[in-house]
């Protein structure tokens, strides 16, 4: 899956680059970067022994941004007439920047013609409005945070910190689920602009999230969704990059299919300047196979120990709810 996520970002970048070409085949000097991934939903399990086909198109364009929808299909040998099976849908948002000034740049517009194109445009338009609304609400909400919700989330965490002998054995602190890794970004991982390829970052984040879930659950998990990806800062060749992951929260309402929500945060670290800046945030959802649950596996509830952790949980749950 990590490699597939990387390939999806590569194709989305190619589509964005092609969309910004002029009629004569030349391309304006634009920097095209992945801004976010809104949703990547696995519809059906992907077989390792089947050929995959990835197709995509620009479905919505703003002033300097565009949304690209990608679909992954795999041939089903048992299907009649050799029909392909839709396995995954992903929505990428790219933004254009002027290569000289770094400011936002205009991109070519699109005109939806068919009914399907109009539906895709409307769905993408709604997602764009929702993103802007979320950003505005997030600032407002966290200035006037509901203290009751925070205290409810922190209640069990305080027991862990103050009276660990009395803590719920079916719960675990967020900080006790964490994993991390570090590496130096190499030249072979750069894109055409000389920056580190976003798909490579997504692949490394996915692999760490998978490992985090594996260590937490005790059985090999299966991937369900990329919930969201944010690209805040570019990553350059030679940067010292640190990935930190944790199980942010679990959803245990359905005993047969518990949901494990994992956060991965990437930091560009510069020891010589004593600085560390967040470059990316990734959110993934995993589950475990029902057979494991029937065999007695129990997924633990994850609780925050600090107000900062509780705010991250609430922010993510609110984003998922909307």
TrEMBL record:
HotDog ACOT-type domain sequence ranges: 1-100, 175-292
The UniProt record lists the keyword Nucleotide-binding: no
GO molecular function, one term: fatty acyl-CoA hydrolase activity
GO biological process, one term: acyl-CoA metabolic process
Xref: Gene3D superfamilies: Hotdog Thioesterase
SUPFAM superfamilies with a match to the protein in the record: Thioesterase/thiol ester dehydrase-isomerase
Signal peptide stretch: none
UniProt keyword annotations, A-Z: Hydrolase, Repeat, Transit peptide
Any matching Pfam family: 4HBT
Domain of life per record: Eukaryota
Keyword set includes Transit peptide: yes
Stretches that traverse the bilayer: none
Family from the record: Belongs to the acyl coenzyme A hydrolase family.
Protein name: HotDog ACOT-type domain-containing protein
Organism of provenance: Quercus lobata (Valley oak)
Taxonomic path: Eukaryota, Viridiplantae, Streptophyta, Embryophyta, Tracheophyta
């Amino acid at each position: 899956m990590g490699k597939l996520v990387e390939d999806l970002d590569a194709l989305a970048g190619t589509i964005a680059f092609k969309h910004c070409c002029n009629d004569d085949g030349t391309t304006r000097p634009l920097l095209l970067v992945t801004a976010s991934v809104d949703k990547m939903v696995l519809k059906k399990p992907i077989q390792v022994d089947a050929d995959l086909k990835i197709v995509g198109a620009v479905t919505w364009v703003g002033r300097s941004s565009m949304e690209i929808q990608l679909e992954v299909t795999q041939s089903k040998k048992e299907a009649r007439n050799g029909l392909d099976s839709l396995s995954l849908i992903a929505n990428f948002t790219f933004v254009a920047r002027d290569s000289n000034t770094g400011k936002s740049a205009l991109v070519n517009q699109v005109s939806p013609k068919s009914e399907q194109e109009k539906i895709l445009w409307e769905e993408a338009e709604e997602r764009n409005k929702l993103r802007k609304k979320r950003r505005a609400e997030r600032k407002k909400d966290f200035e006037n945070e509901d203290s009751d919700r925070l205290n409810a989330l922190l209640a069990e965490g305080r027991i862990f910190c103050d009276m660990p002998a009395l803590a719920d054995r079916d719960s675990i602190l967020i900080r006790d689920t964490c994993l991390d890794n570090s590496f130096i970004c190499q030249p072979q991982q750069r894109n055409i602009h000389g920056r580190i390829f976003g798909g490579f970052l997504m692949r490394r984040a996915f692999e760490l999230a998978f490992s985090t879930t594996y260590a937490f659950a005790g059985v090999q998990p299966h991937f369900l969704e990329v919930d969201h990806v944010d690209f805040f800062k570019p990553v350059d060749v030679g940067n010292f990059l640190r990935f930190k992951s944790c199980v942010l929260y679990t959803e245990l309402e359905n005993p047969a299919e518990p949901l494990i929500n994992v956060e991965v945060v990437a930091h560009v670290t510069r020891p010589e300047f004593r600085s560390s800046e967040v470059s990316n945030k990734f959110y993934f959802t995993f589950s475990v196979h029902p057979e494991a649950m029937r065999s007695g596996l129990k997924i633990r509830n994850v609780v925050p120990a600090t107000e900062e952790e509780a705010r991250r949980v609430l922010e993510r749950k609110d984003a998922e709810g909307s």
